[in-house]
Amino acid sequence: MEKINETMSVYQILSKYPFLLKIFKQHGMEKFEKKDVLEQLGPLLKLKTALSVVSVNKDSFIELLNQAIADNEARGDFTLADSPERQKELTLLALLPCGMKMPFNRALNDFSTEYTKRTGNVLHSLVEGNVNHEISYYAYMDAVTSIEEMPDIVISSDINSFYHKSFRDNFLNSDNFVSLSPSPMNSDFEAIDFADPRGQFTMISGNLLVLVTINELMEGHPKPESWEDILKEEFKNKVAMRGQNGFFCNGVLLPFYQMYGTEGIKKLASSVYMGLHPSQMVKMVDSKKDDVPPMYIMPYFFAMKIQDKSRVSITVPKEGAILSPVQMLVKKEATERVKEITDFLCGKKFGEIAAKAYFPTTNPEVKNKMDDLGSLYWLGWDFLLNNDIGALKKEIAEVFNKQFMTTGGVV
Prior knowledge:
Elements: H1 10-16, H2 21-26, H3 35-41, H4 47-53, H5 58-75, E1 92-96, H6 98-119, E2 125-129, H7 137-141, E3 153-157, H8 165-170, E4 201-214, E5 239-244, E6 247-248, H9 250-271, E7 272-276, H10 278-286, E8 295-299, H11 300-303, E9 312-315, E10 321-330, H12 339-346, H13 348-356, E11 376-377, H14 381-385, H15 389-406
Parallel strand pairs: 1-2, 1-3, 5-7, 5-8, 10-11
Antiparallel strand pairs: 3-10, 4-8, 4-9, 4-10, 5-6
Organism: Methanolobus vulcani
Keywords: Signal
Pfam families: DUF1858 (PF08984), SBP_bac_6 (PF13343)
């Protein structure tokens, strides 16, 4: 990027970086908002002169402008849904669970600022919610065949296209990535063999799915003790899970298929009344209405957002809290180039931020908030490597949606 300096004209600066007008206005130079003033006076007025007129410290103001430019370049000027092919312009792409996105963004912004000051380089990154791309971006990734089309670092959530056969054949089997997972991992992950045995995925964290029941709406039924319990006939149309517009969460569907087969998927579809975003589930529970589903499969992060927890039971069924993975792919050829960035992403400081938000970290130095959660249910690498995951997801979705519509599920 071209650094702003005191000899540049106001017109030169604002023509190239119009988003800086906000900072000029904040410091008493709102007159440049008018096009005629900017065009007539701006070319003649050096920045140092404009600042002296309004008695603004020159060095501090210039530093503020340059930081704003760096931040803008780091964020990128495109959305992944509109321009997925532009991901190759990024160093880091992160598609995260909703509850993780905000704390991640704050931590990354702080790191990026220090990184730019220390190295002079801009960290080109884009952070978006994973739920927005389960149909758009991941469908695009199914057709990508060149490693050059990908960023150096990709963080993603759930069982997505990176587990599909096409990606495995094009990239994973060619050893394009390197795992930076800690060894040993945090003890909370010891029993489930979470580390990728091929050394491709860096497993960072997990989105834990639990069962929330509204006690007063259970109509005398005992609280489910296993995931299988919610498949019972008496719970037809009694469950909400994450879904929208005919798409339902693979982080739920794949484990239920693994545990209970195709018949289990049909029974789950019969039990599900509607698909919602987890934030909508929380609002529904907190509404205290009696015409809402009594049971919710939701992330632990959102379960902890429920205001009146005395009305609900937050249950980890005996099979365990379902672990929907948060994983990272780091290009092997970029390992040294991005080491400072990946050290941050895998480090204790970020691990503590994730754990505080109820996303357990694999970092062994961090204490996760899992005292009340018990065991974890993880699909396992044998299942992921020995199935055509993309084809299986389509098959499961067809079975689920057909039964969901047949049994009166609400779209």
